Amino acid sequence: xxxxxxxxxxxxxxxxxxxxxxxxxxxxxxxxxxxxxxxxxxxxxxxxxxxxxxxxxxxxxxxxxxxxxxxxxxxxxxxxxxxxxxxxxxxxxxxxxxxxxxxxxxxxxxxxxxxxxxxxxxxxxxxxxxxxxxxxxxxxxxxxxxxxxxxxxxxxxxxxxxxxxxxxxxxxxxxxxxxxxxxxxxxxxxxxxxxxxxxxxxxxxxxxxxxxxxxxxxxxxxxxxxxxxxxxxxxxxxxxxxxxxxxxxxxxxxxxxxxxxxxxxxxxxxxxxxxxxxxxxxxxxxxxxxxxxxxx
Length: 296
Hints:
Blueprint: H1 7-11, E1 16-17, H2 22-28, H3 42-45, H4 47-60, E2 64-66, H5 74-79, H6 84-102, E3 110-115, H7 118-122, H8 136-152, E4 157-163, H9 166-176, E5 183-187, H10 202-207, E6 215-221, H11 228-239, E7 243-246, E8 252-254, E9 259-261, H12 271-277, E10 279-282, H13 290-295
Parallel strand pairs: 1-10, 2-3, 3-4, 4-5, 5-6, 6-7, 7-10
Antiparallel strand pairs: 8-9
């Protein structure tokens, strides 16, 4: 069901459950994600698979669906021979597929349009490092067209997610200014929960959003679950805003081998501690599937 309330209004009195990792659910459905576009390739070649993955999370109880646009960029599509008009249609389709999955559900389901970092377009793991050698102005020029296209598709919020450093956060917030859609800002952070992936203090990184009324939540994603407690405390203290948290499984991504290594540590029982620290949007990222979301 399309929500009757803005997301910010719901967050004033509720804790909402996010979905989990889209890529792992698509892989479980038998999809090949080895392409540089990752799950975004399926916007053109297998949209029904994306709709099915969203539906799996709706059945698991998710109240917020994050679209398949994380790695979808005009530049990435152009490398595959997709012209700008067709790329715009695919970006808009990502929002429509999430809306379709929510149709007919008795409860409110919000749609968050994913805006991944510049490094996601590079497909080399650099979204976990940041500091690409680009200026804030250059990053803003990269992000603005995609943000404008996604905003025009009328999601409930833009998820500025997996942001590795302050420069990119500045660029994303500037690119989203005036687009008419609220945003959440979510950093990728170090294991201590106190620094961005680029090594900047989270106190400074979150301060960028503290006085920005367009930002309805701040937090962290695609980090180790153990980092969430401290990061949530910092986000809530610095900004006074609701906090969004969706860590990955705890496994480590190997960009060279394009595979996950190590043991999973995500534990849905931690939700109570995350709520106590100020989290109001809680879910999972890579390798966290519908079963874990249902438990959460």
